Amino acid sequence: MKKCDQYIQGIADYIDGEADAALCAELEAHLKGCQNCRIMVDTLRQTVVLCRDGKREKLPEKIQAKLKDKLKEKWQKKFNK
């Protein structure tokens, strides 16, 4: 079975409804045993709903850059062990 970080692109396709049947089955099997990935999928689904339904707001560039850097740092700590 793949590691969580190997499912990241597949999870995006899965949420978007663009994953093929084999990938869906593989991801669903993985999600049954991986709480972290289930949380990520649930969070991404909710984010998609909020983005579709919400009003777009532009973040100031300084805040956007800080947020991007912090997310990248957290991602690397989590998946580049």
Can you characterise this structure?
- By secondary structure, the chain is mainly α.
- The chain has one domain (4-79).
- Helix content is 74%, strand content 0%.
- α2 packs across α3 (35-53).
- The radius of gyration is 15 Å and the shape is globular.
- The relative contact order is 0.11.
Summarize the structure.
With 81 residues, the protein is an all-alpha fold.
SSE topology sketch:
Blueprint: H1 8-16, H2 21-33, H3 35-53, H4 61-79
Radius of gyration based on Cα positions: 15 Å
Strand content: under 5%
The residue fraction in helices comes out at: over 70%
Total count of helical runs of at least 4 residues: 4
Whole-Å distance between the termini? 18 Å
Pattern of helices and strands = HHHH
Net shape: globular
* Helix and strand composition category: mainly alpha
Instruction: Calculate the mean pLDDT score and round it.
Output: 87
Q: Uncertain segments of ≥5 residues (pLDDT<50)? A: none
| Count of domains | 1
Total strand segments: 0
- What profile does the largest beta sheet have? none
List keywords for this structure.
81 residues; mainly alpha; 0% strand
